[in-house]
Amino acid sequence: MRVPAQSVCRAIRDDIVSGVFPRGGRLAEEQLARRYGVSRVPVREALRTLESEGFVTTRRHAGACVAEPTEQEAADLLEIRALLEPLAAARAARHRTEAHLKVLRGLVRLGQERAARGQVGELRSLDGWFHETLAQASAGSGLIALLLPLRRKIAWMYAVEPATRRPVESWAEHGAIVDAVGRRDPERARALAALHMERAVDAYRLRFAAREAGGRDAGAGAGSAAGAGAAVRR
């Protein structure tokens, strides 16, 4: 049975986001095919899709590699999300169904319960589910197509600091947004979502900048240790 390229694409993307494949690392079709138990055809299709999404780049003499976004590119994504999320909330207030509202309220209830108990490990997936449902409630296929890949790329580029994310306050903000959506008040939903994004940005820490800084510190520490060792030997 032929494995769909979409499934292979999702698997490769998940491995890129989770750090299995490092930034700049080569993505050899043959190795990927073996890893996922497929032929090279769906792998090749998946890599083309991931290149269009910005996760993969093609280099001369090297082929497909994991992209290496700059700090400015990462900052731009957060800024774009800060513009799109309030739009999604406003549209959700106009177009949401009772089914959407039920799911959103259920997610807020779960999120608030987990946050109050300090069960932060489950909050990331609940937060993702909340924002995806809000986007789906906006009834805008173009908006959904922009927001979902954007959230994946931000998850790849950024870590979230739990101490600054204020989970209890964050889920209270989610609840206020859903109340506005439930009352079909687009302007209030937009304003609350904009405030939520503004506060959330403070919790984002660039993953690769922190990793590179750690590498430099480690290198400096190793150099200092070597120097100290040489001094002892002398």
How would you describe the overall organization of this protein?
- The structure is a single chain.
- The chain is mainly alpha-helical.
- Helix content is 75%, strand content 6%.
- The protein has 11 helices and 4 strands, in the order H-H-H-E-E-H-H-H-H-E-H-H-H-E-H.
- The chain has helices spanning 5-17, 29-36, 40-53, 71-95, 98-117, 123-137, 141-157, 162-165, 167-182, 186-201, 207-233; strands at 56-59, 63-66, 158-160, 204-206.
- The strands form 2 sheets. A two-stranded antiparallel sheet has the order 1-2.
- It is elongated and about 55 Å long.
- 28% of the residues are buried.
- Mean pLDDT is 87; it is low at 216-234.
Q: Could you list the spans in which at least 5 consecutive residues all have pLDDT below 50?
A: 216-234
Q: Could you tell me how far the N terminus lies from the C terminus, measured between alpha carbons in angstroms? A: 68 Å
Helical run tally: 11
The major beta sheet can be summarized as:
2 strands, antiparallel
Averaged pLDDT = 87
Order of helices and strands: HHHEEHHHHEHHHEH
Helix content: over 70%
Strand order of the largest sheet: 1-2
The tally of beta strands, per DSSP, is 4
Cα-based radius of gyration, to the nearest Å: 21 Å
Which range does the strand content fall in? 5-15%
Assign an overall shape: elongated
Based on secondary structure, the structural category is: mainly alpha
